[in-house]
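User: Assemble these into one structure.

Assistant: Restating your components, then the assembled model:
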Amino acid sequence: MSGKDLKTVVAELAGADPAAIDASFSLQGEAFSSSIKKAALVASIRRHLGVDCMQAAFAKSYGELEAMIAASRARQRG
Amino acid sequence: MPDEPLAVRVPRENVNDETVKLANWLAADRQKIRAGEVVVALETSKAVVEVPAPEAGFIRYEHPEGAEIAVGEILFYVVADPAAPLPARTAGAPSAAPVDGESTARFSAKARALVDEHGLDPADFSGRGLVRESDVRKFLAARGPAKASFETSRAAAKREPLTKRKLTEIRHLAAGQNAGLASSVGFAYSMEGLRRAAARRPDGGGTPMPIILHEIARLLRKHPVFNAYFEDDAVHYYSAVNIGLVIDAGRGLKAPVIRGVDEKTPLDVAREMQDLMLRYLSDEIDAAALAGGTFTISDLTAEGAFVVAPLINYRQSAILAMGVGQFTLVFDHRLTEGRAAAVFLRELIAALRRHEETGA
């Protein structure tokens, strides 16, 4: 894990300022329109947060993504 | 073959690098190679550069993999006799011209303008040092009036050098086309059903490509002629199934390889694909990630392309092209025929349709 948080991971891939990422930030816009970006998001979460969350590619918003990551973390611990 | 050992030196690919790293030898020491065949991959500060042999012969290494080598230092020799001793390293050893497609000559402004005006190849002035306007005019005169009039009768064109990345891509693809007999077979197939089936399995990555790779790997074991290459009048069958995925999304055209696909589950393949996409977007794809492919897939459905005719990669015998509503298998006709390609594609599509129905 690199110590990057989820906001930084999303911001880097979206080309956005992490401060602009809130729960309503859309993951369906142009920044994440390609399958390559979605795949990179899942890989980046795995690399930097240590969470294996394949469903992350389907998150529609940052808030939804946070919830998915939390659920995956709970499953990994359980 | 060269009359005496031909030294090929490390090219200068960008002004900031004084050394490069020898990433991979792509031909064995003392191996017989063809002119234009890519023999080594170098890592510069900005890209992986592949260096071809300027002439046919046998290659003799000068450095091991991983070595840091100064720009301009001898990288390898091309020799006629692989057993003969190499010359002692001297500054005067005969060298091939830099293999980056540019001339060693320097041009005055007027000379350069004349070269561009007449559509001349700067490489024609290699080794001359400073080329002046008078040198270019003498060159034009020596070619004779008929050719000169042909040159001046062409429409004017602005010369723009290709990027190093594109030149490397050209050399690599050209090496795969040398004397090849590419043919193709296409079948109608829409991936919409497979995409819906994959989307019902978000825990599996949610995309159809891992399923497609899994089935292709299985079929490559069943039809090994598509996991092979032609060389020296023989078919060479690979022992592994390593599939390259063509990616072109703003960081150049690359085909990173997933190794041992037939030994991995679709979920493992999905994870590895995701990692490769991240590495591609992060400019982390190195020579090692691009080497060792035995088969390649090119997916242009996202661009809306119907018919795709990709080029077979170096030392491979086939490439699968995925367009909207059509799969096409481009194959080397020196090794197999259209019927075999049709059987392969038909079996692939049948397998994918089973996945659509079962969602597995």
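Confidence is low (pLDDT under 50) at residues 90-103, 146-152 of chain B.
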